[in-house]
Amino acid sequence: MTPSLVVIGSTNVDLFAQVTRHPTPGETILGSGGGRTAGGKGANQALAAGLQGAPVRFVGAVGDDGDARIALGSLEDADVDVTDVQVAEGQPTGLAIITVADDGENTIVVVPGANATVTPADARRAVEAMAQGDVLLMQGELSRTTTETAIRQAVAAGHRVILNVAPWGSLDGDVLTAADPLVLNEHEARQAVAELGLAGAHDSAGCARALREAGTPSVVVTLGPEGAVAVDADGETHVPSPRVQAVDTTGAGDAFTGALAARLLQGDNLRTAVAHAVRVGSYAVQHAGAQPSYPSLTQELP
Ligand code: RIB
After folding, report:
1. Which CATH fold would you assign to the domain 5-11+41-91+114-293?
2. 96 lines ligand 1 (CB under 6 A)
3. Positive or negative: CA dihedral 189, 263, 52, 159
4. pTM exceeding 0.90
5. Peptide bond connecting 23 to the previous residue in cis, omega within 30 degrees of 0
6. Ligand 1, atom nearest to 252 Cα
7. Domain coordinates of the chain in residue numbers?
8. Residue 68 pLDDT
9. Are 262 and 54 in contact, with CB atoms under 8 Å apart?
């Protein structure tokens, strides 16, 4: 059987406002937009991987409201298996309120809603259903205990685990160092280094090296327009990003991580997978929104 990527994660509806600049605390400004599209770091990464050709099973929860259809629409269209997405009675679907400024940078506030109902028991069941060769991909938008339970159980069963701790949240050291790779942005990399009490890491490459020396089999630190740095048993590599005009960076990290996971599942080594993921991330920043900005295999990458 062809191995699958199993994504246990969040799904949201993203409510967008375009602004010329971000408001300061206490300030009201006028914006435009108001569109609602599918989002959530888990669902985003599941979709990005599916569009890059990986068989994907997504495990999560939506509310019993109209937003659930929006949240799952793109996944279903891309043939991502959503049969293990629960409907949480009396809960709203997760909501992300996103402002995107003229320079393409965003701010995001996530209201978890149904995502908070995904329990360690749900995660355990999802991992038990994984077949040999399946890879687990997780992010930081479910509860800490759900994330830690899933990862520990997957590791015990011999599955590869890819972990993108976004948004950053404390996790036990054995969970952080089990990830292969641990995928972080520069800010998250510093927090992971601090969490593990590692000294002497001054820049992103230094953080990646320190995390690997602490026992993490492989580490990828994303550097926005500068690409990504990756460290594994074969050494360290910096993959620059193609120069593109960023319109909206929302979900670009998820596009990167989903594409990376798809390529690793398909047997690429870390360097080749990162090189592809950087191009997918660069494609995504050139388009508005999270999921609507993701390329399929037929789209030309920068
Ligand atoms: O990474 C981008 C995502 O973060 C958005 O889609 C939003 O839903 C939040 O989860």
Report:
1. UDP-N-acetylmuramoyl-L-alanine:D-glutamate ligase (3.40.1190)
2. yes
3. negative
4. yes
5. no
6. 1
7. 5-11+41-91+114-293
8. 98
9. yes
